[in-house]
Amino acid sequence: xxxxxxxxxxxxxxxxxxxxxxxxxxxxxxxxxxxxxxxxxxxxxxxxxxxxxxxxxxxxxxxxxxxxxxxxxxxxxxxxxxxxxxxxxxxxxxxxxxxxxxxxxxxxxxxxxxxxxxxxxxxxxxxxxxxxxxxxxxxxxxxxxxxxxxxxxxxxxxxxxxxxxxxxxxxxxxxxxxxxxxxxxxx
Length: 187
Ligand SMILES: O=C(O)CCC(=O)C(=O)O
Ligand SMILES: [Fe+2]
Description:
The chain has helices spanning 2-21, 28-31, 101-106, 164-173; strands at 38-45, 55-60, 66-71, 77-81, 84-87, 96-99, 116-119, 126-133, 143-144, 162-163. The chain has one domain: Sandwich (Jelly Rolls). It is built from four helices and ten strands; from the N terminus they run H-H-E-E-E-E-E-E-H-E-E-E-E-H. The protein is an alpha+beta fold. It has a four-stranded antiparallel sheet. Strands 2-7-4-5 form a four-stranded antiparallel sheet, with no helix packed on it. Bound molecules: 2-oxoglutaric acid (AKG) and fe (ii) ion. The site of fe (ii) ion (FE2) has 3 residues, from loops. InterPro entries: IPNS-like_FE2OG_OXY, IPNS-like_sf, Oxoglu/Fe-dep_dioxygenase_dom. This is Fe2OG dioxygenase domain-containing protein.
């Protein structure tokens, strides 16, 4: 419980910084509910006898707005950059912050969601705790798209508006092998 209180506060602070980085008022992303709707998934990856035959989690970008990830000392998380996989080495007391597909939409592609995966290992277990910020429930029924203040003639919208509830319905009906729901709304 204590951890989630801290996650909520951290989320608010991160969304302030991200708003400023977009050239918006510091409270912009918080005021539209970005730091709400935080859900948590804990992963337990046991030691794997044949790690070369499998992956812990396949390549994907997180579907929500922002993810705060805590991993134990085992390592295994990798991010894709310029078509190459890079290890995200665990740092004691460190957290990994991943931009999700919905922040890519809100920022009209200024922030790019990060493709990542978790590889298996002979040793373990590896444990990770992901807090997914997916936005306040009241956003589900409202049109969602790039922030209007970020749109101009020089920077036209890269996504059409859509309903988050339809987006999440697509997400929950999909697998990591199918195209991510964000792709349906690209302009
Ligand atoms: O276990 C990890 O480090 C990654 C988990 C992950 O990518 C996810 O839950 O979306
Ligand atoms: Fe992920």
